[in-house]
């Protein structure tokens, strides 16, 4: 199945791993998870008046707490952060995990000890788990069975200039959903560091994008909403699962004859892809500069090929690194992998070329070869370094064409000292030009 989504809503979420949500359409089996602490609850409690409970757990974070009994609505609230390895909510139990005070700390941290020694959250058929305050889940398998429901909706919507306390962190979390399982995302700021979130679901979700006008309230696939704000949050989460482009390849090739680097890349699919910005770094990947831009296809279900040629290579050569900054129509961006090319340094020459008249009054300017032994017909490229505008690439590749361009530029920029840079093969020569 394919996920039909579009990133048409600005993201609220902050995250350190770009596109760290993935949705896989497959039926999965929930992991085995057994409670170390079991609480049998008596019937009682309503949504407006839940029955309060408290559980004493191990300080080392190893407790897996199971709730059964009921039916009813219950709330486990705490004054300080509680760390667990797991929570199991059995059928008939509607459990809220929250906090009593007004602090900025997590109410609950549910985490495994490692990516292989994982924690668990199990919501059985006809059970509900509501995480109602700042919560962190790390190295955890979440399983929502049957008609179970999991809710991420903070009680705190913010007051005055204070932001709401509604951060939900998923790091190395796998969320497994049955066909009838339900997810509700309300007042939630989703943080996806590190290994992020993987959602396994056997049903398709069609709610986000210009072609869909979902009902309010409504539902699609595993997701339900009661108002437009909740629908917006769901779309933001789902949008993270859609890579703006799927790359087939990204390659760099050094062209010795032209002394240029050719970049070639192709996409398999594109969603709302505005353009690619080409960035370059020299002899390291700490300092990047934009050197060009290529328009994207926008939307495409077919392979699209792109290319860009970097003709302004540094004279000193070295290891040249390139990456693509892919930008969506809404301004969101993501980086490609990094590729590189080894570029030889230029040999600086003197006396191979001469220019005349020099100084020039702007009426005439020519370039002449003085030393034919050191020029074997290689392609010429040239730059004019101007007093105010800096380096200006020249489009000509013959001495006549380059001379005409130089004459035009010095007449525009006026009197002063210019540097004409001529390159061919692996050689470069700088010639001082005076405009009177």
The helix fraction, in percent, is under 10%
Query: Which runs of at least 5 residues are low in confidence (pLDDT < 50)?
Result: 1-26
Rg of Cα set: 31 Å
Q: How many individual β-strands?
A: 33
What is the structural class? Answer: mainly beta
What gross morphology would you assign?
elongated
Describe this structure in words.
The longest helix has 15 residues, at 399-413. The model is unreliable at 1-26 (pLDDT under 50). Strands 1, 2, 4, 6, 7, 9, 10, 12, 14, 16 and 17 form an 11-stranded parallel beta sheet that branches. Strands 20, 21, 22, 23, 24, 25 and 26 form a 7-stranded antiparallel beta sheet that branches. The protein has 3 domains: 37-202; 246-343, Immunoglobulins (Immunoglobulin-like), CATH 2.60.40; 353-435. A hairpin with a 4-residue loop joins strand 24 (318-328) and strand 25. With 436 residues, it is mainly beta. The chain is built from 2 helices and 33 strands.
Task: Give the SSE layout.
Layout: E1 21-25, E2 37-41, E3 51-53, E4 64-69, E5 72-78, E6 82-84, E7 86-89, E8 93-99, E9 108-111, E10 119-123, E11 128-131, E12 135-144, E13 149-152, E14 167-177, E15 182-185, E16 189-191, E17 197-201, E18 218-220, E19 223-225, H1 228-239, E20 245-255, E21 260-282, E22 289-300, E23 304-310, E24 318-328, E25 333-335, E26 339-343, E27 347-348, E28 353-356, E29 366-369, E30 381-386, E31 390-394, H2 399-413, E32 416-424, E33 427-435
Parallel strand pairs: 1-17, 2-4, 3-5, 4-7, 5-8, 6-9, 7-10, 8-11, 9-12, 10-12, 11-13, 12-14, 13-15, 14-16, 14-17, 27-33
Antiparallel strand pairs: 18-19, 20-21, 21-22, 21-23, 21-24, 24-25, 24-26, 28-29, 30-31, 30-32, 32-33
